[in-house]
Amino acid sequence: MLENNIAVEREKIVHRALIEFESALIGYAASIVKDEDRAKDVVQDTFIKLYEQDPEKVKESLKAWLFTVCRNRALDILRKEKRMVALVDEKADRLEGTTATPDRVADWDERVTQVMNALDRLSDNQRKVIRLKFQQELSYKEISEATGLAPGNVGFLLHTGLKRLRALLPEDLLENSLRKQ
Protein backbone atom coordinates (compact mmCIF):
# COMPACT_ATOMS: atom_id res chain seq x y z
CA MET A 1 0.00 0.00 0.00
CA LEU A 2 2.89 2.37 0.79
CA GLU A 3 4.41 1.77 -2.67
CA ASN A 4 1.04 2.57 -4.25
CA ASN A 5 0.88 5.88 -2.34
CA ILE A 6 4.40 6.79 -3.48
CA ALA A 7 3.49 5.98 -7.09
CA VAL A 8 0.38 8.17 -6.85
CA GLU A 9 2.42 10.98 -5.29
CA ARG A 10 5.03 10.68 -8.07
CA GLU A 11 2.35 10.91 -10.73
CA LYS A 12 0.85 13.99 -9.06
CA ILE A 13 4.21 15.75 -8.90
CA VAL A 14 5.07 14.91 -12.51
CA HIS A 15 1.62 16.01 -13.68
CA ARG A 16 1.91 19.28 -11.76
CA ALA A 17 5.42 19.86 -13.10
CA LEU A 18 4.33 19.19 -16.67
CA ILE A 19 1.52 21.71 -16.42
CA GLU A 20 3.51 24.40 -14.63
CA PHE A 21 7.02 24.08 -16.03
CA GLU A 22 7.22 22.10 -19.28
CA SER A 23 7.19 25.03 -21.71
CA ALA A 24 9.58 27.08 -19.56
CA LEU A 25 11.96 24.11 -19.31
CA ILE A 26 11.88 23.58 -23.08
CA GLY A 27 12.73 27.24 -23.61
CA TYR A 28 15.51 27.07 -21.05
CA ALA A 29 16.98 23.87 -22.54
CA ALA A 30 16.70 25.30 -26.07
CA SER A 31 18.69 28.34 -24.96
CA ILE A 32 21.49 25.96 -23.97
CA VAL A 33 21.44 23.33 -26.71
CA LYS A 34 20.25 25.70 -29.48
CA ASP A 35 17.81 23.15 -30.91
CA GLU A 36 14.17 22.67 -29.97
CA ASP A 37 14.07 18.92 -30.64
CA ARG A 38 17.14 18.29 -28.49
CA ALA A 39 15.66 20.62 -25.86
CA LYS A 40 12.51 18.49 -25.78
CA ASP A 41 14.68 15.40 -25.29
CA VAL A 42 16.45 17.14 -22.40
CA VAL A 43 13.13 18.03 -20.79
CA GLN A 44 11.84 14.49 -21.30
CA ASP A 45 14.95 13.18 -19.53
CA THR A 46 14.34 15.72 -16.75
CA PHE A 47 10.79 14.45 -16.21
CA ILE A 48 11.99 10.85 -16.22
CA LYS A 49 14.49 11.75 -13.49
CA LEU A 50 11.70 13.50 -11.59
CA TYR A 51 9.54 10.40 -11.75
CA GLU A 52 12.42 8.31 -10.40
CA GLN A 53 12.93 10.62 -7.40
CA ASP A 54 11.39 10.27 -3.96
CA PRO A 55 8.48 12.75 -4.03
CA GLU A 56 9.25 13.96 -0.52
CA LYS A 57 12.75 15.05 -1.53
CA VAL A 58 11.71 17.25 -4.44
CA LYS A 59 8.23 18.61 -3.78
CA GLU A 60 9.35 21.57 -1.64
CA SER A 61 11.91 22.80 -4.18
CA LEU A 62 10.37 21.40 -7.36
CA LYS A 63 11.04 24.37 -9.64
CA ALA A 64 14.69 24.73 -8.62
CA TRP A 65 15.21 20.97 -8.84
CA LEU A 66 13.71 20.80 -12.34
CA PHE A 67 15.76 23.68 -13.72
CA THR A 68 18.96 22.33 -12.15
CA VAL A 69 18.46 18.85 -13.60
CA CYS A 70 17.46 20.34 -16.97
CA ARG A 71 20.57 22.54 -17.10
CA ASN A 72 22.87 19.69 -16.08
CA ARG A 73 21.35 17.34 -18.65
CA ALA A 74 21.63 19.94 -21.44
CA LEU A 75 25.26 20.64 -20.55
CA ASP A 76 26.01 16.90 -20.44
CA ILE A 77 24.67 16.55 -23.97
CA LEU A 78 26.76 19.46 -25.22
CA ARG A 79 29.92 18.12 -23.57
CA LYS A 80 29.43 14.64 -25.00
CA GLU A 81 28.70 15.97 -28.47
CA LYS A 82 31.82 18.15 -28.31
CA ARG A 83 33.90 15.13 -27.30
CA MET A 84 32.44 13.08 -30.13
CA VAL A 85 33.15 15.80 -32.70
CA ALA A 86 36.64 16.39 -31.26
CA LEU A 87 37.47 12.69 -31.45
CA VAL A 88 36.27 12.45 -35.02
CA ASP A 89 38.09 15.69 -35.95
CA GLU A 90 41.29 14.35 -34.39
CA LYS A 91 40.94 11.08 -36.25
CA ALA A 92 40.26 12.94 -39.52
CA ASP A 93 43.33 15.13 -38.97
CA ARG A 94 45.47 12.07 -38.30
CA LEU A 95 44.13 10.36 -41.40
CA GLU A 96 44.79 13.45 -43.48
CA GLY A 97 48.22 13.91 -41.92
CA THR A 98 47.77 17.67 -41.64
CA THR A 99 45.70 20.19 -39.80
CA ALA A 100 42.33 21.25 -41.10
CA THR A 101 42.21 23.59 -44.07
CA PRO A 102 39.13 25.61 -45.07
CA ASP A 103 38.30 22.96 -47.69
CA ARG A 104 38.60 20.17 -45.14
CA VAL A 105 36.48 22.09 -42.63
CA ALA A 106 33.79 22.60 -45.29
CA ASP A 107 34.00 18.91 -46.19
CA TRP A 108 33.74 17.97 -42.53
CA ASP A 109 30.70 20.23 -42.04
CA GLU A 110 29.07 18.57 -45.04
CA ARG A 111 29.77 15.11 -43.59
CA VAL A 112 28.30 16.08 -40.21
CA THR A 113 25.22 17.43 -41.97
CA GLN A 114 24.87 14.16 -43.91
CA VAL A 115 25.04 12.12 -40.70
CA MET A 116 22.55 14.36 -38.89
CA ASN A 117 20.14 14.24 -41.83
CA ALA A 118 20.43 10.45 -41.98
CA LEU A 119 19.80 10.19 -38.23
CA ASP A 120 16.67 12.33 -38.68
CA ARG A 121 15.34 9.71 -41.11
CA LEU A 122 15.39 7.00 -38.44
CA SER A 123 12.53 6.27 -36.07
CA ASP A 124 12.59 8.12 -32.75
CA ASN A 125 13.56 4.95 -30.86
CA GLN A 126 16.34 4.05 -33.32
CA ARG A 127 17.76 7.57 -33.16
CA LYS A 128 17.55 7.59 -29.36
CA VAL A 129 19.32 4.26 -28.83
CA ILE A 130 22.02 5.10 -31.41
CA ARG A 131 22.73 8.41 -29.68
CA LEU A 132 22.79 6.76 -26.26
CA LYS A 133 25.14 4.06 -27.53
CA PHE A 134 27.58 6.18 -29.53
CA GLN A 135 27.34 9.67 -28.04
CA GLN A 136 26.62 8.78 -24.43
CA GLU A 137 28.65 5.54 -24.58
CA LEU A 138 26.01 3.59 -22.66
CA SER A 139 25.81 -0.20 -22.56
CA TYR A 140 22.72 -2.05 -23.79
CA LYS A 141 21.67 -2.51 -20.16
CA GLU A 142 22.09 1.20 -19.40
CA ILE A 143 20.16 2.13 -22.55
CA SER A 144 17.44 -0.28 -21.49
CA GLU A 145 17.23 1.33 -18.06
CA ALA A 146 17.28 4.87 -19.48
CA THR A 147 14.57 4.21 -22.08
CA GLY A 148 12.45 1.52 -20.47
CA LEU A 149 12.99 -0.68 -23.53
CA ALA A 150 13.89 -4.35 -23.13
CA PRO A 151 17.62 -5.06 -23.72
CA GLY A 152 16.72 -7.28 -26.68
CA ASN A 153 14.67 -4.45 -28.17
CA VAL A 154 17.63 -2.09 -27.68
CA GLY A 155 19.84 -4.50 -29.62
CA PHE A 156 17.26 -4.84 -32.38
CA LEU A 157 16.81 -1.07 -32.66
CA LEU A 158 20.58 -0.55 -32.81
CA HIS A 159 20.95 -3.24 -35.46
CA THR A 160 18.11 -1.97 -37.66
CA GLY A 161 19.07 1.68 -37.15
CA LEU A 162 22.71 1.08 -38.10
CA LYS A 163 21.63 -1.02 -41.06
CA ARG A 164 19.46 1.87 -42.25
CA LEU A 165 22.32 4.35 -41.72
CA ARG A 166 24.64 2.08 -43.73
CA ALA A 167 22.13 2.21 -46.57
CA LEU A 168 21.88 6.01 -46.35
CA LEU A 169 25.56 6.90 -45.90
CA PRO A 170 28.88 5.97 -47.49
CA GLU A 171 30.63 3.32 -45.36
CA ASP A 172 33.64 5.46 -44.44
CA LEU A 173 31.39 8.30 -43.34
CA LEU A 174 29.34 6.12 -41.01
CA GLU A 175 32.33 4.44 -39.39
CA ASN A 176 34.23 7.70 -38.87
CA SER A 177 31.18 9.44 -37.43
CA LEU A 178 29.95 6.87 -34.93
CA ARG A 179 32.95 4.89 -33.77
CA LYS A 180 35.46 6.04 -31.22
CA GLN A 181 39.13 5.42 -31.98
Task: Describe the structure in your own words.
The chain folds into two domains: 1-99, Rna Polymerase Sigma Factor, Chain: A, CATH 1.10.1740; 100-181, Winged helix-like DNA-binding domain superfamily/Winged helix DNA-binding domain (Arc Repressor Mutant, subunit A, Orthogonal Bundle), CATH 1.10.10. The termini are far apart. The chain is built from nine helices and no strands. It has helices at residues 2-33, 36-52, 55-58, 62-96, 102-120, 124-134, 140-147, 151-168, 171-178. By secondary structure, the protein is an all-alpha fold. The relative contact order is 0.08. The model has no long low-confidence stretch (mean pLDDT 80). Helix 7 crosses helix 8 (151-168). Helix content is 84%, strand content 0%.
